[in-house]
Amino acid sequence: MKKRKRSARLVDMTRQLLAQPQQVIPLSTFADRYQAAKSSISEDLAIIEEVFREEGYGFLQTVAGAAGGVRYIPHISLEEAEKSIHEICERLAQPERILPGGYLYMSDILGEPNILHQLGLMFASRFTREVDCVLTVATKGISLAFATASFLNVPVVIARRDSRVTEGSVVSINYISGSSKRIQTMSLARRNLPEGSKVLIIDDFMKAGGTVQGMKDLLHEFNAEVVGVGVFAESRVEERLVHDYVSLATLTEVDLHKRRIKVQPGNYFSSERHAALRD
């Protein structure tokens, strides 16, 4: 690549960092690309780091050693996350969203790229432990899982309620739906998930938690480690099968007769989680 002015170099470096979150980029890669000294590259990275932190885009992490370099860590501030989720809660509280059984119509919200970008960034900011992949169950949680995985820079694995010939050998389990108490089946192709993987579970909606517990049971068959569970929205129930999870929104009331919905921010914003997000 031809030698560029510093302003152009900064733009291109920023683009590369944003396009490769969580990935270590050696300083030599930048130095060779721009035909510049490593000291100049370090100064450029310091400028980018300052802007990222001031504007709330995340931060750069320096990795020492022969294979070291710099890594972009996406992050959203609590203030920005709260602003976004309050706007989303207002939309979720629209009475026409009520579906039979106390569910909410959310497909339009989970189909908007800007909203998915914010939700995925929230989960990526919360789950900072090492993650090998993101697991969800077909179909509504897929877009949210991909949004989260894009910031973690890991693949998405999809569990299905019916096995497909094109996926080869599969592992299937039976699980009990937490709300309906019906026995259902969940399958995952053996080739999709290496044994011992560290997995983040993402789902769009949780009532009693039967589907999430089913995914955890399925991961047990792969000797996988569940590093976290994130759900977009949860409803309040007396008995829940899953207790360790992060929710972005909580349905506190769904009155089918009065056509009334009350939604508030989820436990993502609870006081004990604030410290984790500020670290």
Describe the protein.
The chain is 35% helix and 25% strand. Helix 2 crosses helix 3 and helix 5 (113-126) crosses helix 6 (142-152). The chain has two domains: 6-74, Orthogonal Bundle (Arc Repressor Mutant, subunit A); 78-278, Rossmann fold (3-Layer(aba) Sandwich). Residues 274-279 have low confidence and may be disordered. The protein is of the alpha/beta class and 279 residues long. It contains eight helices and ten strands. It is globular, with a radius of gyration of 21 Å. Pfam families: Pribosyltran, PuR_N.
Q: How does the major sheet shape up?
A: 6 strands, mixed
What global shape is seen?
globular
Beta-strand percentage? 25-35%
Rg of Cα set: 21 Å
The overall pLDDT average reads: 90
Widest sheet: strand ordering: 4-3-7-8-9-10
Which topology of the largest domain does CATH recognise?
Rossmann fold
The poorly predicted ranges are 274-279
Question: What is the straight-line distance between the termini?
Answer: 38 Å
Number of strands: 10
- What is the name of the CATH class of the largest domain? Alpha Beta
The level of helicity is 25-40%
Quickly list its features.
2 domains, PuR_N, single chain, disordered C terminus, 25% strand, Rossmann fold, Arc Repressor Mutant, subunit A, globular, alpha/beta, DNA-binding
TL;DR of this structure?
With 279 residues, this protein is α/β, with parallel strands linked by helices. The chain has helices at 6-19, 27-34, 38-55, 78-92, 113-126, 142-152, 210-220, 271-278, and strands at residues 58-63, 69-74, 133-137, 156-159, 170-176, 183-189, 198-206, 225-235, 246-255, 260-265. Helix 2 (27-34) packs across helix 3 and helix 4 (78-92) packs across helix 5.
